[in-house]
Write the structure tokens for this entry.
Amino acid sequence: MPIKVGMVSLGCSKNLVDSERMLYKLKSHGYKLVTEPGLADVAVVNTCGFIQSAKEEAIETILELAKLKADGTLKKIVVTGCLSERYKEETAELFPEADAVIGIGNNKDIVDVLDHVLKDERYINFAPKLDAELTGERIISTLPFFAYLKVAEGCSNCCTYCAIPQIRGKFRSVPMEAVIKEAEWLAQNGVTELIVIAQDTSRYGEDLYGKSKLPELLRRLCKIDGIHWIRTLYCYPERITDELLETIASEEKLVKYLEIPIQHCNGEILDRMNRWGDRESLENLFAHIREKVPNVILRTTLITGFPAETEEQFTELSEFVNKVRFDRLGCFAYSQEEGTKSADFEGQIDDEVKHHRADIIMEQQMLISAENNEKLLGKELETVVEGFDRFGECWFGRTQLDAPDIDGKVFFTSEKSLSVGEYVKIKITDTLDYDLIGEVIAE
């Protein structure tokens, strides 16, 4: 009887890719993969440790698994990922129920780790974080038609609020030929939508080739047979070049969508964040992008309540959001993270104030999104089918305007049966705050 392993992958899509590589190794060595930890003999938790809420989720997950182990449902627990990499000894001491606590550099050796714990050995090991593998075969755990393509590991930007460089190490690109090989493998295995990710995708290739090679990489990805959509996430504003914009505008497979996290618009705050820009330069940048890439969808993320953020600076941010009118926006209250420079800054702001400011921005964005959606009434949009909602008795999916998990959906009716991963034309007939309603256009 094969030993059953369940994976719990927390945090971002970059972490998910790591989980998928571990799953492939485990299956290749004869382990049976199950989707529910309660059905497993061994549970592997790939944790996130980026901000306080992510750490709390990771701790809660480990404690839930510990209960399953205590009642005999689960035999072994392995903890890996950003939380254990960031808090090595603390994680091992805090969770005696964990049979293995390892760092991200050990993920490539997950089979050996399980060998130890199945011999009833407690295994605590933290290989150098730079040992984390940059590529490798995977088991796709998303819907079968799309996959994340991680083109780099780590980060060298050193934003003062962010712990990623100390958790993941310096930025290092995956060699282009390895990226292309992985993308071709994904296409051969039924993936039609690639979502290009890294901590700073726009920096891709600088460390290997002396300059950003993201435009060249995207052009080469567009030549792969079977790929229908390619979406780019996590581009930094200071690295948005005309070459990149012209590539997005001219390549048919590249959806006209850019995620550019800016965090704020006030120059003084951005300077203390060790981020680029000010309100004028950012407004000019987004106007330039919209000129170069007609109908582009712009997504960003913002932080409210950064240390010493004044009411005037927050008002400036609010006015900026209303002026630029992002198509997609996420806003988060500042999280004071130990080990980061900003954790020691003077002027730390009360949690209630930080969250109230974030709520205000999101309320603004809801109105902007609703108005943007109204403009889509009567339009025909290509949509990928994600499934059928039995309760709503309708299909649902995503248009080119939306990335999975973080953006909205379109709910639609169809006179014929559809398949997950099928691309159809939808006529938009109604809107919700963030979502769309429509019907399939008969061909």
Observations:
- The mean pLDDT is 95.
- The two ends are 50 Å apart (CA to CA).
- The chain has 14 helices and 19 strands.
- Residues 176 and 217 are 7 Å apart (CA to CA).
